[in-house]
Amino acid sequence: GGTFKGLKPPPGRHWRSDPKELEKLDEDGLIEWSLNGVPRKIIYADEQKGKKVQDIWDFKDYQYPRYPTEKNSGVLERIIQTSSNPDSIVLDFFCGS
Questions:
Q1: Can you tell me the distance from the alpha carbon of 1 to that of 10, in angstroms, rounded to the nearest whole number?
Q2: Cβ-contact 41, 17 below 8 angstroms
Q3: Domain locations in the chain as residue ranges
Q4: Which of 6, 59, 65, 96 could be bridged to 70 by S-S, CB 3.0 to 4.6 A?
């Protein structure tokens, strides 16, 4: 409930933070406004919870791949681990291609 900058959450929804906290975050420049006018809290990478993802991944490609676009399975595993949750279902709509 509550109003923030004249906005109310959609019916059946609520703000994740108290509107007073949202006002403080906005004053501190920590609220961004989406193109459709929805406020979002800015969370910087160094403030994220959990294990930090490094920006350099050292994987060796196959010397003689069977296919020109073949990827190292370690790279694919890292991509899936960093972009999904442990219980997520991951679909490969391109069947590995």
A1: 10
A2: yes
A3: 1-48, 51-96
A4: 65
Name the pTM for this structure.
0.49
Q: Tens digit of pLDDT for each residue in 42-94? A: 988 778 777 777 777 777 777 777 777 777 888 888 888 888 888 999 888 87
Distance CA 88, CA 80 (A): 10
Residue with tokens 């694919």: 76
Q: Which of 37, 2, 51, 49 is nearest to 23 (CA)?
A: 2
- Dihedral sign of CA atoms 8, 14, 19, 23 in order: negative
CA neighbor of 72 nearest in space, from 62, 87, 84: 62
